[in-house]
Design goal:
Strands 1, 2, 3, 4, 5, 8, 9 and 10 form an 8-stranded mixed sheet that branches. A two-stranded antiparallel ribbon has the order 6-7. It has 175 residues and is an alpha/beta fold. 19% of the residues lie in helices and 27% in strands.
């Protein structure tokens, strides 16, 4: 992706970046969602694999990690956060994504989400909560947040394109 990368932008307490092609017309928007202790630069390694017809948003998680960096929900070593922990942040993130898409004149419609580790869990949470807004999800070394509500349905993910990749030697997130 031959991109024009912006500096981080502060908007209503959230920080994000926009990556654009040299040509102004875009047809789709991709959101790169970092993992625990990451930031809006952490997922840049994936930019070269994103097709040129995408605009890319890279948000920073709202939770400051004691180890450095940021996350999407509070981290509890040895425990994977349940879906309920992701709900509010997913709703807030989508509202900000909608603002940033308008502010930056990016394509609206269904989003492509690429998440790593806790960011993959956030991507799946967005897909569950807002299936009409998500076209596809790539989960890289992530996890599906365990439903903590008895009536939570994972049905929205059934018709969505989802790619999952996970290493067999991951000491943090089990397969």
């Amino acid at each position: 992706m031959s991109d024009n990368v912006s500096s981080p932008i502060l908007d209503l307490g959230w920080i994000y970046r926009v990556q654009r092609q040299n040509e102004p017309a875009k047809t789709r928007t991709c959101v790169l969602i970092h993992g625990w202790t990451g930031d809006e630069f952490s997922m840049d390694v994936f930019l070269r694999a994103i097709p040129p017809d995408y605009a890319v948003l890279s948000p920073r998680g709202p939770i400051h990690a004691a180890e450095g960096g940021y996350g999407w929900v509070s981290h509890r070593p040895g425990n994977l956060a349940p879906y309920q922990d992701f709900q509010k942040t997913a709703q807030d993130l989508l509202a900000h994504l909608d603002r940033w898409i308008i502010q930056n004149h990016l394509p609206g419609g269904k989003l492509t989400l690429i998440g790593f580790s806790q960011g993959a869990a956030m991507a799946l949470s967005l897909g569950i909560a807002f299936p009409g807004r998500v076209a596809r999800i790539a989960c890289l070394s992530g996890f599906l947040p365990k439903p903590s509500l008895p009536d939570l349905s994972l049905t929205p993910l059934q018709d969505m394109k989802v790619f999952i990749a996970h290493g067999t030697r991951d000491a943090i997130i089990p397969i």
